[in-house]
């Protein structure tokens, strides 16, 4: 079984311990991430090439995120320009995901651009020093797409044809200080799966971690994100915020992730499914379905606010 198939299995092995006879006539789903309020702890993970799913691509995704009052992490491999994404939803909460490029000047250019455009955090993906064995990738679409945000600084506004641009395999912990020198944005590391790396993240003064196995597409036989979450949360000891992506499909899944210490969850594939179905309205539907299910899950377990969700709600069982 590939890792992506294990995500749901990990969540299915967790049972809920509901508490009753509480006044749950009012249930508040709101929370904050990096000091910014969101309507529900269900946000949009970075995924690339949204124009494959819908003509307006990331612009539609950004509008749906704004309408839902949640955060949208824009990918380095966005198929719309950053300027167009911002213009589509100027009041939306946006973070930017960076695949570190070998060209340091290009990294600097991107970081300065997203900060000037009002993005609120920099998410550095750390689990791709090399592209994994993605056996199911479609390769015959490459000639029809453009990467709008990776033009060479030396060539002005040039836009290269779609290719998985080289990612800097030499990036290491000591390089984080260089990124921190470039921006005042909080830095989030995406792809942490172990307590050792979580401890190093705290040591290097980053502001958050997204526990993720990259949708099971990078390395087989790593833990499901939900299983790694507990280890990472224990390691950071509340010093930085921890988020999770991977395998979340129901309101109960959201509740379980938060009970295990995640500040919020990020959705990848379901967002693309909604986008392909009906553009921004499809994405809104996906978010609303999950939001309503999460409200039900909170109500039926006796949680009147996100702050009341804790480890006492969780029981582990064998499948």
From TrEMBL:
It catalyses: a (2S)-2-hydroxycarboxylate + O2 = a 2-oxocarboxylate + H2O2; 2-hydroxyoctanoate + O2 = 2-oxooctanoate + H2O2. Its cofactor is FMN. Glyoxylate binds at residues 99, 134, 214, 217. It is an enzyme of class 1 (oxidoreductase). Keywords: Flavoprotein, FMN, Oxidoreductase. GO terms for cellular component: peroxisomal matrix. PANTHER family: 2-HYDROXYACID OXIDASE 2, S -2-HYDROXY-ACID OXIDASE-RELATED. This is (S)-2-hydroxy-acid oxidase. It comes from Camelus bactrianus.
């Amino acid at each position: 079984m590939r890792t992506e198939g294990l995500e749901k299995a990990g969540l299915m092995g967790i049972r809920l311990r509901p508490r009753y006879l509480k006044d749950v006539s009012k249930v508040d789903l709101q929370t904050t991430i990096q000091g910014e309020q969101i309507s529900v702890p269900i946000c949009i993970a970075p995924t690339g090439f949204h124009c494959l799913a819908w003509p307006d691509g990331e612009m539609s995704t950004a509008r749906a995120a704004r309408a839902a009052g949640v955060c949208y992490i824009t990918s380095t491999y966005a198929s719309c320009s950053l300027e167009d994404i911002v213009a589509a939803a100027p009041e939306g909460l946006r973070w930017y995901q960076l695949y570190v490029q070998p060209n340091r000047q290009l990294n600097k250019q991107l970081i300065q651009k997203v900060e000037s455009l009002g993005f609120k955090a920099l998410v550095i993906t750390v689990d791709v020093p090399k592209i994994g064995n993605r056996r199911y990738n479609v390769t015959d679409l490459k000639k029809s797409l453009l990467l709008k945000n990776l033009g060479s600084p030396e060539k002005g506004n040039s836009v290269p044809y779609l290719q998985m641009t080289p990612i800097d395999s030499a990036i290491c912990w000591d390089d984080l200080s260089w990124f921190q020198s470039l921006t005042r944005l909080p830095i989030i590391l995406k792809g942490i799966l172990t307590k050792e790396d979580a401890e190093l993240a705290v040591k290097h003064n980053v502001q958050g971690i997204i526990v993720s196995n990259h949708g099971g597409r990078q390395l087989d036989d790593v833990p499901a994100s939900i299983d790694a979450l507990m280890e990472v949360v224990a390691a950071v000891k509340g010093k930085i915020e921890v988020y999770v992506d991977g395998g979340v499909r129901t309101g109960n899944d959201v509740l379980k992730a938060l009970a295990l210490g995640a500040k919020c969850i990020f959705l990848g594939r379901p967002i693309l499914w909604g986008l392909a179905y009906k553009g921004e309205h499809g994405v809104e539907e996906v978010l609303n379905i999950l939001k309503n299910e999460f409200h039900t899950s909170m109500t039926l377990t006796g949680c009147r606010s996100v702050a009341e969700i804790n480890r006492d709600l969780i029981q582990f069982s064998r499948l």
